[in-house]
Amino acid sequence: MYLRPLDPVADGPALHVIFGDPQCCLWLPDPAFPDVDTTIAKLKLWTDGFEETSWVITQSPDGPALGRISFYNTGRDKDVWEAACMVSPQARGQNYAARALSVAIKHLFSTTTARRIYADIDPDNHASMKTFEKLGFTQEGVLRGEWETHIGIRDSVIYGLLRTDLQPDIAPEPTMIGRVR
User: Fold this and answer.
1) Strand bridging mode 80-87 / 116-121
2) Tens-digit pLDDT profile for the chain (181 aa)?
3) Would you call 66 exposed, middle or buried from its count of C-beta atoms within 10 A (0-12, 13-18, 19+)?
4) Residues 134-169: b if buried by 16+ CB within 10 A, e if exposed
């Protein structure tokens, strides 16, 4: 398994398997994207300014994207980052998200001054909560009525990980290739 820099244009068609699937997008603010061009446009938007912290999960260095891992700094505090991950349906159940996030978290903490990473998760997205718990994230609270989404008003469950928290190794670790500082 590999993590390589996300290329919105090249990886857009493979990632559209996720972002064009209504079930995969159930917990996102927007519904599934109608076509590959919309997926590419959104990936460009999401990645802009975060090229160093946006990766795809692959089975080979130049293989198709099976998922996406990203960290975003929203600007409120330069040392607080939000984590995002999505894995295609055919790659689920193989621990790809936890393995990829584990390596990406270590990378973020070793290459930035980040002190905290958080995840904002829909309370019905049990698989995502389980993934972040496996990585040592602590459930910090629930923000009621936080999101207006395509399925209605939703709560947010906030998970956090501090640089000083225990970060379990999730083996086998993927190889990170490309833009590594």
Assistant:
1) parallel
2) 999 999 999 999 999 999 999 999 999 999 999 999 999 999 999 999 999 999 999 999 999 999 999 999 988 899 999 999 999 999 988 899 999 999 999 999 999 999 999 999 999 999 999 999 999 999 999 999 999 999 999 999 999 999 999 988 888 889 999 864 4
3) buried
4) bbbbeeeeeeeeebebeeeebebbbbbbbbeeebee
Q: Which residues pair with 175 in a beta bridge?
A: 2
Question: 3-class DSSP state for residue 131?
Answer: helix
What is the distance between the alpha carbons of residues 125 and 34, in angstroms, rounded to a whole number? 23
Would the pTM of this model clear 0.90, i.e. be above it?
A: yes
Whose CA is closest to 39, among 70, 69, 7? 7
